[in-house]
Design a protein that fits this description.
The structure is a single chain. The chain has 451 residues and is α+β, with helices and mostly antiparallel strands. The chain has 3 domains: 215 residues, HUPs (Rossmann fold); 80 residues, Chorismate Mutase Domain, subunit A; 112 residues, no CATH class. Helices cover 37% and strands 21% of the residues. The protein is built from 15 helices and 22 strands. The strands form 5 sheets. The chain has a 6-stranded mixed sheet with strand order 3-2-1-4-6-5, with helices on both faces. It has a 5-stranded antiparallel sheet with strand order 7-8-11-10-9. Strand 13 and strand 14 form a beta hairpin. Helix 2 crosses helix 7, helix 5 packs across helix 9 and helix 9 packs across helix 11. The longest helix is centred in the middle third of the chain and has 28 residues.
Length: 451
């Protein structure tokens, strides 16, 4: 069956009106066919911007970009060329690095209700599901690529996902399309290429409709995963402390081991983290949740660690202090950045440290070294900071990030928590207080990990 623009029309009709449509265009046969189909639809063509992303991995990439620009000019479609850094991070495959770089370049383009079209087809889905199967993935991985998903402020859509590669080739030849060939696609050292070049052709000799049947299985897995995720979200609601995004251990333990694992996975999803391996989830349940109440177990990953404190399970993001010990707070500066995700701000207040005293002192910022004590307004005697932190239920890893503010070498404030008796004022004079601000890192998409 020959592809027609009606395939695109029917797929896009399932979504809200789209002011701008971006189309990821590599110059290869798949994206060229998708572009040609879209450009054939009169009311769609003016909305389309084809986007070429140069990963910098091939010497021919610049010429490919020129080819893409010329094709778009011939079709009368707007064209945009972007550069991306596809250097692989530690533990990241070249394919994954290129994909992540491409998505990172495309995501900022989309405004509200804009759409990004990708040209992945049925055999791409087959490869994805097989790769996930070989990696031991669960339902989410075996669901393959979704036909549609939220992406930045808009939506990502794969309108050719149930179209075969043979249909794409047939369309390209019947319309005499010219496309570029990436020589790296012939290298079977990459897992996906190995499947595409060596394994899937052999499998399709035995099972010709393999891509269609696996696509159907992926849909079954996606539906099951959707229902399971809804159940997991309901379970998480009974276990999650919304204030600090921690799990209440006593509540978690009321569920079976399988349900505990399901809740922990949903917790990671809530935090915006990459889904943990089954082995890591089992270790969380056995070594952290199942530890003695007085134990302090830690399970560390590269970017975060799992810890427990006072009947709660925390996911603590790795951090580094932005300021050094003995930092001088510059005169007139209202904001102090402590870590990449946390800062402290000086604000006017009816009570607190007298403004005049603040302005006329040398202000120094230090961090805990142990043994500090303070006098507090309205309380007798001196109090060890360690005891105050314990009273307030502040986890040990948060204590080391709380700045100690000294005025003329005398401790005046402990972060936003306490102002010492020597500096606290309730008179009518103007005062200041120090408040804590959470910084949402660029690209974080709302991830809330305790820091």
């Amino acid at each position: 069956m020959l592809l027609s623009p009606n395939v695109i029309v029917s797929k896009l009709a399932q979504h809200q009106p789209y002011p701008i449509i971006y189309l990821a265009y590599s110059g290869g046969i798949d994206s060229h066919v998708l572009l040609h189909l879209c450009a054939s639809i009169d009311n769609l063509k003016p909305k389309i911007t084809a986007v070429y992303v140069n990963h910098g991995l091939q010497v021919e990439a610049k010429n490919w970009g020129l080819h893409c620009g010329q094709v778009c000019a011939n079709l009368g479609v707007k064209f945009l060329s972007l550069k991306a850094n596809a250097k692989a991070a530690p533990g990241e495959s070249p394919e994954e690095a290129a994909r992540n770089a491409r998505y990172a370049a495309l995501k900022p383009l989309l405004g509200k209700d804009d759409m990004l079209l990708l040209a992945q087809h049925g055999e791409d889905q087959l490869e994805t599901v097989l790769l996930q199967l070989f990696r031991g993935s669960g339902l989410k991985g075996l669901s393959g690529m979704p036909e549609s998903m939220a992406f930045g402020e808009g939506r990502l859509v794969r309108p050719l996902l149930d179209v075969s590669k043979a249909q794409i080739i047939e369309y390209a030849k019947s319309h005499a399309l010219e496309w570029v060939e990436d020589p790296s696609n012939r290298h079977s050292r990459y897992d996906r290429n190995f499947l595409r070049n060596d394994i899937i052709p052999l499998l399709k000799q035995r099972w010709p409709a393999l891509d269609k049947t696996v696509f159907r299985s992926a849909k079954h897995c996606a539906n099951s995963d959707f229902l399971l995720a809804a159940h997991a979200e309901d379970l998480l609601r009974h276990v999650l402390d919304q204030k600090d995004k921690a799990l209440i251990i006593s509540n978690l333990k009321t569920y079976s081991l399988l349900e505990q694992q399901l809740i922990i996975r949903q917790w990671f999803n809530c935090l915006g983290l990459k889904m943990p391996s089954q082995d890591f989830v089992e270790k969380i349940v056995e070594q952290v949740v199942g530890a003695r109440d007085d134990a302090n177990p830690v399970l560390a990953k590269q970017d975060y660690c799992i810890r427990r404190y006072r009947n709660k399970l925390y996911c603590v993001k790795s951090f580094s202090l932005s300021i050094k010990e003995g930092y001088l707070w510059p005169f007139g500066q209202s904001l102090l950045k402590v870590t990449d995700e946390e800062s402290y701000e000086v604000v006017h207040s009816e009570t607190g440290i007298p403004l005049e005293q603040w302005q006329n002192s040398t202000i120094t910022v230090k961090f805990r070294s142990g043994g500090e004590s303070v006098r507090l307004p309205g309380r007798e005697g001196r109090h060890a900071l360690k005891n105050l932190f314990q009273e307030a239920g502040i986890p040990p890893w948060e204590r080391i990030q709380i700045p100690l503010i000294f005025l003329d070498d005398q401790l005046a404030a402990v972060g936003e928590r306490w102002i010492t008796a020597e500096y606290y004022s309730e008179s009518r004079e103007p005062c200041i207080r120090i408040i804590r601000r959470k910084i949402n890192p660029k690209g974080n998409d709302g991830m809330a990990v305790v820091g």
